[in-house]
Specification:
Helices cover about 35% and strands about 15% of the residues. The chain contains 10 helices and 9 strands. Helix 6 links the parallel strand 5 and strand 6. Helix 2 runs parallel beside helix 4, helix 5 crosses helix 6 and helix 9 crosses helix 10. The longest helix has 11 residues. The chain is globular and about 50 Å long.
């Protein structure tokens, strides 16, 4: 496979271990505690999700609403950063995590950017530009993370705009088999002319032939989300390049046993 931006320096002939939203099986997803725990477990990197707060700050949270992971209610986009910071983003996982806060992307890079590679997923399915891509690119540059990140999204227009904002940072298209085939083809069509360094499929879509075809097109195959050790092993045997798991400690053991 030919060299492709900074991404190729990551793999070095091995399958990478990424904590999906951090070590989210054991700690509150998308919190500093979850990311630090993933690092302690020996993960190579973490995957996280970003969107704007009402006042234009880049916050790390998966859902469009705060209901599922905090003690608040409503849409993330309707709250300022200060209001989001007042919420408890840990107690839903247990009293031991009470007081965890929704982090900003800046705070995550400051906490674990030197320890971990980071997959930043750009949330939001609207094709309308909102400035998130340029803002994330600026944060990456400010923290010197350009060679330690990959950007992913289900939204092909976000990837197009990010490539324009930061041509030297790798991108990967996210997709899953629950999306109708014609919509997946439309998304691929919207990416015509934009090279993607990686493919980010739902692991249930992947076969050995799938991996071969993506590699033929010079794309790394970074799959999500595998939590079962037998499935992790099977994915490795198919030739995938990176596995995202809620249980990076389990994945680390599987990968180490194959080394």
């Amino acid at each position: 496979m030919s060299a492709n931006l900074p991404l190729e320096a990551w793999y070095q002939g091995r399958v990478l271990c990424f904590g999906h939203r951090g070590a989210s099986y054991d700690a509150p997803m998308n919190t500093i505690r979850a990311f630090e725990l993933a690092a302690d477990y020996g993960a190579d990197g973490v995957e996280l999700d970003v969107m704007f707060s009402r006042d234009g700050q880049v916050v790390v949270i998966h859902d469009e609403t705060i209901d599922g992971t905090t003690d608040g209610h409503g849409r993330v986009a309707d709250f300022t950063l200060a209001e989001l910071k007042a919420l408890d983003a840990g107690r839903f996982k247990g009293e031991a995590f009470a007081g965890e806060r929704i982090p900003t992307l800046d705070e995550v890079f400051e906490a674990v950017g030197k320890r971990l590679l980071v997959n930043v997923e750009l949330k939001g399915l609207s094709f309308r530009a909102d400035g998130l891509e340029a803002r994330v690119a600026e944060i990456i540059r400010r923290h010197g993370m350009a060679e330690r990140v990959i950007i992913s999204s289900f939204n092909p227009m976000r990837l197009r705009r990010f490539r324009q904002a930061a041509p030297g940072i790798p991108i990967g298209f996210l997709h899953e088999d629950s999306v109708p085939a014609h919509l997946r083809l439309l998304s691929r069509a919207l990416l015509l002319g934009v090279s993607t360094e990686a493919d980010h499929p739902d692991q249930r879509m992947v076969s050995a032939a799938y991996v071969v075809e993506q590699h033929r097109q010079n794309r790394r195959v970074n799959v999500w989300v595998a939590n079962d050790p037998d499935r992790m092993t099977a994915l490795c045997e198919m030739g995938v390049d990176l596995i995202m798991s809620d249980r990076p400690d389990v994945l680390r053991k599987v990968l180490d046993s194959r080394a």
